[in-house]
Amino acid sequence: MHVDTSVIEVLKEVMESEFDILLETFIEDSQERLDQLKLAFAAGEVDAFRRAAHSFKGSSGNLGAHHLSSLCMQAERLAEKGNIGGAELLLNEIVAEYAAVAVEINSYRE
Amino acid sequence: MVALEPVLTILIADDTNTDRLILEKLVRKDGHHVISVANGKEAVDAFQRQPPDLILLDALMPEMDGFEAARAIKQLAGDEMVPIIFLTSLNDTQSLVKCLEAGGDDFISKPYNGVIIKAKIKAFSRMREMHSTMRVQRNQIQLHNEHMLQEQNVAKQVFDNIAHSGCLHASNVRYLMSPLAVFNGDVLVGALRPSGSMMILLGDFTGHGLPAAIGAMPLASTFYGMAHKGFSLTDILREINQKLKNTLPIGLFCCATFVEMNFRNRHLRVWNGGLPDAYIYRRASGKVEVVESSHLPLGVVGGKDFKADSALIELEEGDRFFMWSDGIHEARNSDGDMFGEDRLRKVFERKNAGVEIFDRVLAAVQDFAGEGERDDDLSLVELTMELPSNLEQLHDLPGTSGVQGLAEWALSFEVKAASFRFFDPLPLLLDILQSVPGLRVHGGNLYTILAELYSNALEHGVLQLDSKLKQSAEGFVEYYRLRESRLVSTQGQVTFGITHKLTSLGGLLTINVKDSGPGFEYKVQPNAGANLQYSGRGINLIANLADSIQYKGCGNEVEVVFSWSESGE
């Protein structure tokens, strides 16, 4: 499982009628972050890469996608060191993990 | 019963939509009103538009990150407390410290925990209220402080106006009143009496600041008002004591030493109520005599219970009198010891050339109290028994120029025929005479003298009534019938001429009464005690009461001389 169900349960309780909107927003955000990561990596922009990784880490964590969040943290740390040249592998992992997360998230939508 | 939490307006700034949504929902569920923005710049704008009660700020944002936004907002907030809680998934110490240094008051980590967020909002809300209360109270205190300072300023100005220095500039007077002493209720007033003697009063009111200043005002105005008119030390003390007793609340009173220095006969009168013992330094022997406090302070008891008796001390030229409030004895050093009576005595016992004592006392106290003792609470007065060399200047001071006018005067008062029947001039004349303080105690006798003189002038002089008539019952009736009818028809008048001047002993009053009648033969009279002498004029009575009585001219003019002395005889 790529998404922590207990987190989803709590979120359902908290968001009430806006639960669906939240999931939708997450999907949108995540797509955007992924695009930013890819662009930044391609252009070699370390700072942009770092910020995108940082934000993605946050939102995925909020939705209970712990592994995805942890991968983003690694990407962030890498960028902090100043060199994202060897980040391709990590980026691919992130893309793959997110794909799995998205499936699960969508299953909770109405 | 749980108290209702206040509803806050909370600003949320987070650039990640997902996170922002969750947070908004959490905060709204907690009952609060939410303003939501997606970057730092929008956060600052929103803050300016409508200042929230609390801010949840994401650390990393585009356009202006959280740190910069926090700094800007804290500056805009001024001394109002607007808590900023950073939202961050940063977890390294350095970043967290950076949050606090940028003005953050706390941080909330992602992923969001609803329970923690709710608890932190509650805690900061409480802090904010406390801070707000404190600010309101601080402002109130500031306002009250300002009022108090204004009041004290006014009190000081009023006091300065009343307590013009009188004779404190005299060359035989030296004094020091430190500002703290004045603030603590010490007051010094001094004036020359019309007779030339000098009166000085040193007072120490209980309390300090405004309450103490309030007491000084009636004291000073009474003192100066009465001293210049020539009232005695006893009279002034009684009056001041009664005024203070009547106006001051219980527990407020004035310890005082009142002294009168007579340069002509070198006498010193001292009254000490509650202040430390005063000293007399004898120039010839170098010895010190003590004048103890033997009375209650002013304002404690009233009426007959107040004792205004003073000690009379004979001095030699050059002897010095010292008086002080308790600031000298109670001056403390850094160990908490008091200066005390012994140390003060020692200053006097050293080989002194009299004139040095004043400075040495001050130096001794200041040395004892040590450096940095900026709370000098000292009042010290020295009077030397020697005629002031600058008397002229003292007399020119405002308040003293009235002295001559009140002391020496003359009046002429004519009662004309038309007034005889309806107007009695005696109360008016007596009132004028009694404005001379020295004559007050003789009011009764003076009235008798005036009444007798007027009666003589009117009935025997103007109306020409013969008092022999009054020896029989029918004659009595006839006398008064004649009196009535002649009052109606007479065209005569009675003139009073009264002068008063001061003498070395007190004063001299001369009363001259002249009537428009033909007078009588007064030069040839045998000795006798009967009242029927002098054609019925009660001369003997007057002669007993006054210094002298003398008829003049054709007998329609009489002059009575009446003297009074300061000692009350």
Give a written overview of the molecule.
The complex is a heterodimer of chains A (110) and B (569). Helix content of chain A is 82%, strand content 0%. Chain A has helices at 5-15, 19-43, 46-62, 66-81, 88-108. Chain B is α+β, with helices and mostly antiparallel strands and 569 residues long. Chain B has helices spanning 17-29, 40-49, 66-77, 93-101, 114-162, 179-183, 210-229, 233-247, 340-349, 357-369, 391-396, 402-407, 417-420, 426-433, 437-440, 443-462, 473-489, 539-545; strands at residues 9-13, 33-37, 54-58, 84-88, 106-109, 173-177, 186-192, 198-205, 254-262, 267-273, 278-281, 288-291, 311-314, 320-324, 379-384, 409-416, 493-502, 506-515, 548-552, 557-565. In chain B, the strands form 4 sheets. Chain B has a 5-stranded parallel sheet with strand order 2-1-3-4-5, sandwiched between helices. Residues 396-405 and 528-532 of chain B have low confidence and may be disordered. Chains A and B meet through helix 1, helix 2 and helix 3 of A and helix 1 of B.
Produce the secondary structure layout:
The complex is a heterodimer of chains A (110) and B (569).
Chain A lengths: L4 H11 L3 H25 L2 H17 L3 H16 L6 H21 L2
Helix pairs in contact in A: 2-3, 2-5, 3-4, 4-5
Chain B lengths: L8 E5 L3 H13 L3 E5 L2 H10 L4 E5 L7 H12 L6 E5 L4 H9 L4 E4 L4 H49 L10 E5 L1 H5 L2 E7 L5 E8 L4 H20 L3 H15 L6 E9 L4 E7 L4 E4 L6 E4 L19 E4 L5 E5 L15 H10 L7 H13 L9 E6 L6 H6 L5 H6 L1 E8 H4 L5 H8 L3 H4 L2 H20 L10 H17 L3 E10 L3 E10 L23 H7 L2 E5 L4 E9 L4
Parallel strand pairs in B: 1-2, 1-3, 3-4, 4-5
Antiparallel strand pairs in B: 6-15, 7-8, 8-9, 9-10, 10-13, 11-12, 11-14, 14-15, 16-17, 17-18, 18-20, 19-20
